[in-house]
Structures are given as C-alpha cells and as structure tokens.
Amino acid sequence: MIIYEAIKKDFVEDVLNDSIADKIHDQYKLKVGGINYSEYMAWNNSMQHMYKVLDTNTIPDDAGIAIEFKIPLTSNRIDFMISGYDSYGEGSVVIIELKQWECATKVAEKDGIVKTFINKSIVETTHPCYQIFSYYNLIYDFNESVQTGKVSIYPCAYLHNFITKCEKEISDEPYCNYVKEAPLYLKGGAIKLREFIQKYINIGDNKKNLYEINNGKIRPSKSLQDVLLQMLKGKEEFFMIDSQKVIYEDVLFYGKKSDVDCKKRVMIVEGGPGTGKSVLAINLLVQFISKGMVTQYVSKNSAPRNVYSTKLKEGYNSRQINHLFKGSGSYVNSKENDLSVLLVDEAHRLNEKSGLFRNIGENQVKEIINASQLSVFFIDENQKVYITDIGSKSEIEKHAQNSGAEIYYYKLESQFRCNGSDGYLAWLDDVIDIKKTANYDGFDFDFDFLIFDDPVELKNIIEEKNKENNKSRLVAGYCWNWVQESKNDPNINDINIGDFNISWNLGNTSTWAIDKESINEAGCIHTCQGLEFDYVGVIIGPDLRYEDGQVITDYNMRAKTDYSLRGIKTIAKENPLKAQEIADEIIKNTYRTLMTRGQKGCYIYCCDKGLQEYFKRRLHMFKD
What we know:
Rossmann fold; seven-stranded mixed β-sheet; 21 helices; about 35% helix
C-alpha cells in the first residue's frame, strides 16, 4: 500500500504550493486512520528537504514518487521512494529512510543500535542504515519482481537535520557495514544524495516500477528457503516424534492443497505443556517457506518469537528471519488470503482487539483466519493467563465457520517436558485445584520436584543447575511491582522476601530466557510462557494461599504493574462471584504454566506458609 504517489513534477508542485503534508495526511486518513501532529510536521519538514534534492533537470520529471509505502506482510513503512530506469534501461527504485534527528550516540556493544532523542526521551533504536537495509532485504525476500531482476532496489538514509559534528557517532565503527550497504547522507548532503539517485534513475517510468513493487507477486526467495533449511539441520531441539510428525504431515498436506484449490482451511491443534506445539510450528514454518509458500509464525507474547528466531539463526547472519515471526495484532489491515499459512502458537493468548490500548481491529482470531488460506492454531485452554485472553476452541470454530473454512481437529499427546510425566501435570492440576484427577496420590515418574523453605536456597540451586548449560531459570508470580527505575538496572531489587532480593528481568533485552546474565533476574509469566528450561525455580507469591482446607486466590495481592487482571475490581463491584471465578482461573493457570516450564525439575518456594505445608503434605503422601 502506498499512501501518496505521484510523478516527480507533481510532487515538486505540491511542495511549492505547501500542500504536500495535507495531501499525505488526507490519503493516510483515508487508507489507514488518523495521525498525530508530530508526524504531520515531520512530513512537512522532510518533504521540503526532498524537494531540494529532486529540484534538478537531471532527474526526470516523470520519475515515480511514493511516500509512506507499507511493506507487504508487515506494518513497516518506507518513507520515500523514487522509481525509473537506469542508463541500461533496467527498472530501478531508490528507497530512502528519512529522519528528523539532530544528533545520536553510538551503542558499540549492540549490533545496529544507536541512541537518540525520540518522543521527549533518549532511547535506543535501530541505526537508519540498518533499518532501510533490513527493509530492502524484506522486499527482496518476498517480492518476485525484485528476485527475478525485473526491478532493482537501492537503499539509503537521509538525516537532513543531523549536525556534522556528531557524524562519527553514526558513520564510523560499528556501523560501517550498514553504511556501505545503504549510504548515509546528513545535513548539507542534498547534492550528494541527488548524485546517488542519478546513478539509478536516468529515465522516467511514470510510476511503473512502483507498481511492480506494490503489486508484485509475494513469494519467499530461493535464498531464504535454502538458508532456513540449513538452519534447521542438526538442531535437535526442533526434532519431531510421534504425534508431532503425524500432525506435521497432515498440516503440510492441507497447506499445499489450499495453495492449489484456494479453499480456506483452519486447523486446531490442542496440546498441554511440553507436548511440542512450538517444535511443530517451527518445523512447519521452515518447510512451508522452503516450498515457496508465504508463511509466518504468530504469537501474542513476544518472548517465544524472539527466542525461537534467535535460536533458529544461531551461527548465521540472517536478519531477515525476524520478519517470519509476527505479533498477533499484525493482521488488522490484511487483505483476504494475503498469506499462504499462518502458524499461531499459544493461540489461547489471542485478544479481541490489538494495539497498546486494545482499540485497533475487530478480533484477532477473525483477522488471522481472514489473512491466510490455511491457519493453524496451537492451543492449550488451561494456559489462559490474562483477563483479555479470548483464544478458545469455540472462538476459533465460530470465526472459521463464519468464513466458510473447512475445520480439522488434532491433539498432541506425547509429553516431552516434566521428564515426560503426564502424571506430574495431572497431580499439579489436582494439588492447586484446577481440576480433580486420578493423580491425587502423586506421580510415578522421575521428575525432580522439591519444596524450599528459603528463597535464597532456591536461587542457589537454580544457579548451580544453570552452570551446566544455561538452561535453568528463576521465575515468580507477578506479586511485586516492576518499577520503571529497575527496568534496566539489575542492582535495583523488585522482589524482596526477608534476606532474598532480586530484580525482575531487565527491559533492555528480548531474549531473557537464553541470555546468560539473566540467571541473576527473575522472570514472570510474560517472559517465559511458551518456553522451557531444564530446571525452573518458582516463587509462588501471596496471590495463591492455603486457608481452611482450600487453595484460594487473592487478586488484591497482584502487583499494580501487572495488567493480566486489569478490570477485575470493576467486575467484582457488579458480580463478586464472577470476579472470583476469573481470578481463580487466571492465577491458578499462571502458576500451572510456571511450574511446567522445566523438563527435568521444578523447585518451589511459597510465600504463604500454609500453602508451603500443604505442598509438603501432598508430596509426602507418595514419597514417604
């Protein structure tokens, strides 16, 4: 989608008449929605600078101009594009990232990251050359016209307000490789940018090559297909067995069938913790991409997306892999059947609406089904941990039926976590009173479950286990505030229990589950759901207690910074019983999820001494 398009002659007139920002705004409002004032002013400012660059007879008047081009399959937009033909008559498009920045500082220890002033504060963000080069890679990897050489793309970045005394901060090491791939132009660099454009735009095309980019067939490139297959080879953690393989073959069959007959299909794959839902999803992602089908892995929670994409590309420099992993709110504006396949992991976490304030779109389940020919939902309804979670079997069925899709049902049975112990899962459900099971007396499998009276001892043993292979972590119920001051400072302790002190996971990383330093931080449900470790240490907060012979929940003990039960007090005023029902489900599901992250063992500490003694009694019933 292109917000504003014109030939160069008309663009120049729009700038001269001071109407360019209004025209962009009107088209943006029509095609996307409202904007804020700062974005309007940014257009007004940047287009004046682009006018100076293009105000020359050496760039043809009928060259194509596009402003705010939305890259297919993403929410990312390219600020400015100019199209035409080079001196050999080959189709060319120059893509430009425009920035209002006046200065920035380097972040030497991080790849492609700089620090600058955005929205009234200093933040870390991607280097402009990295940003536009990643957009180039994304278009190349999914646009057939570019892959076949019909159109060539040339990226660059123009920071027209950037003062030259800060130039070294943004152009020297560690950014040289990105600047080489996508040249950088700063304040006073209008003539140099013009010369760059002139290399590739010699003859006007009346927007023809913009049309090729905007409407070209979407398919994964051969290089992306090959590198993904290579990445998966030898990665034992993604190896499939038993029911995983059976379902895998069925999903491949129906995916290819939908690609041929264009019929919409929905597959619902149910499975408890550790049954291999994510392993299956990753294998399917790679296989569908290798067959040239446009496929994405989807999850509401960013933690598994970030970890799986990082693990998949270990040993490779393949930044484009990130674009295969998307959030569940990415399909609000998607056209019907935009993609071949969407693989929705942790589908129980889907929301009704998207966006920071959950006010965008209609329904994520509906949008995902609409956007893809085949959508595969991996679900465990007992892992609903947010009051806004709507992902359920019935919800998926409803929207699948409304779309006229064929529906298929599967169940993953084999247990690969908790040492393969289905008995432990059933025992846990019984102990915390999620449901009564036949495992009241315990479980008969070799799963290491221990109860600690001191959280310091719990932390010490998890640290010892982690020395083996960096696969053990400490997690806690969300009963302690994640304060702003501590988000990037490990020396500020959020959780304090007697002599035990620890900070929540830091906000400056998206891969807490595999970062070596994060053994010194506690994760919560939002950082570990969908992931697994060898050993997990769980601090059960005061929101789960044992009183008068019952396991009870107390939503008043949840941290103010936790939004998983946001709105529960309003519900309680109108219907206290309903509020308690919701709290019971969310809080108990949270601890069930935390206590099933370990493959080899789970160690716990309970803030409530009554609960601590209750767990000991239940454990000793079959250990004595």
